[in-house]
Structure formats: structure tokens, C-alpha cells
Design goal:
Layout: H1 2-10, E1 15-19, H2 29-34, E2 39-44, H3 53-56, E3 64-69, E4 73-76, E5 86-94, E6 97-105, H4 114-125, E7 133-138, H5 149-160, H6 179-190
Parallel strand pairs: 6-7
Antiparallel strand pairs: 1-3, 2-3, 4-5, 5-6
């Protein structure tokens, strides 16, 4: 918890997206403990399944958070739920920002499917009325592989909506340090 708090404070981040948070709701002790003084947050926990074994699991994998400095005005923007990724969407105003921010997490344990790209396209179609859109998080795509089928498809979808990829280097260094990806993406987009 102090790692996330320190990362936000040390890098003077106005916005910080964190995914795969493993929390259950807005009053999660971990979420509260990660929030630096002078910051607030919006969150969206992964809904637990009501199917026996999964319902008894103590850890709720998934979930997304967006921390923001409290001088920003943040209001939720309702978008539909999608089966292929988790997300939260807010409109951020203040400190020179007037931006729609979408925090997305596509689990790496799930195959990349056509349904993912269809859902992502649907989400982006619903945001075309906004002049500025930031997508933060972890899509679990190997965007550093320019010729990869999924990378080509992702870049095509982004170009349809005039969106640019601002992260130009790999963000995942090992299978053990998954949080480094969110930090790098958040820092590069929001720092």
C-alpha cells in the first residue's frame, strides 16, 4: 500500500490509474491506505461470481482505481459493462484538464478475441463527443511487437478514433512485477 502512495506522491501525479487491484469495494482498507493525503479516488471492483468455489475465494482479482489530486473535479461517466475487460470512466476538469479518462483492465489470463476489439470499439464510439480522451491501464497486449496481429488490430481501432499511443517502450519487465506496468503507463500518460 505504501508503494502506491509513495509512487503517486514522489512523482507528483495528478492522476494515477491502478488495475488488477484485488479489492471488493469503495471502503476497502487497502484502497483507503493507498490514498495519499490531498487525494481522492474512484474505483470499480470486479463483481464476485456467485458460483460456489469462486464465491468463497478470499481474493477478488481484478478491479480498477483512479486516484486524483483533490483540486480536480471528477465526475463519473456511465458506460455499459463489457465481458472482455473491466473499466471505469470519469470526466476530469481542473488544472488545465478537460479530459475523459477511461481506466481499462483486460485480464491477461483471457485470450484476445474479436469480442474484445468489438467491445473496445463500442466503448470508443460512445466517447467521440469528447475532445480529449485518455485510456489508461493494462490491456495485456504486446504493443511492442509491431507486427503482432493483436497490435495491428489495436492500432487500427485507435486510429479510427484519432487516438495515439503515448507509451513507446515496453512496460512489463517480469511476470512477478505486474504493478510496474500500471505505474509506467500511468506515469507516461499522466505524469
Amino acid at each position: 500500500q505504501t508503494d502506491i502512495c509513495d509512487w503517486i506522491v514522489d512523482n507528483l501525479l495528478h492522476l494515477a490509474a491502478v488495475v488488477e487491484t484485488w479489492h471488493d469495494g469503495i471502503d476497502s482498507p487497502d484502497l483507503v491506505a493507498c490514498t495519499p493525503p490531498g487525494y481522492r479516488y474512484v474505483e470499480r471492483a470486479r463483481q464476485r461470481l456467485d458460483d460456489g468455489a469462486a464465491a468463497t475465494t478470499r481474493t477478488n482479482h481484478g478491479g480498477v482505481w483512479l486516484f486524483y489530486v483533490d483540486k480536480l473535479h471528477v465526475r463519473p461517466v456511465l458506460l455499459p459493462d463489457y465481458d472482455t475487460f473491466e473499466h471505469l470512466c470519469v470526466y476530469v476538469q481542473g488544472s488545465g484538464l478537460n479530459t475523459l479518462v477511461i481506466v481499462v483492465y483486460r485480464p491477461g489470463s483471457a485470450s484476445v478475441t474479436e469480442a474484445f476489439f468489438e467491445s473496445l470499439t463500442d466503448l470508443l464510439e460512445r466517447t467521440v463527443v469528447y475532445k480529449s480522451v485518455w485510456i489508461l491501464g493494462d490491456l495485456n497486449l504486446h504493443l511492442d511487437r509491431a507486427n503482432d496481429t493483436h497490435t495491428v488490430k489495436f492500432q487500427h481501432v485507435m486510429s479510427l478514433f484519432g487516438l495515439l499511443q503515448h507509451v513507446s517502450s515496453p512496460t512489463h519487465w517480469s511476470s512477478v512485477d505486474d504493478r510496474s506496468e500500471e505505474r509506467r503507463v500511468g506515469k507516461e500518460c499522466c505524469g
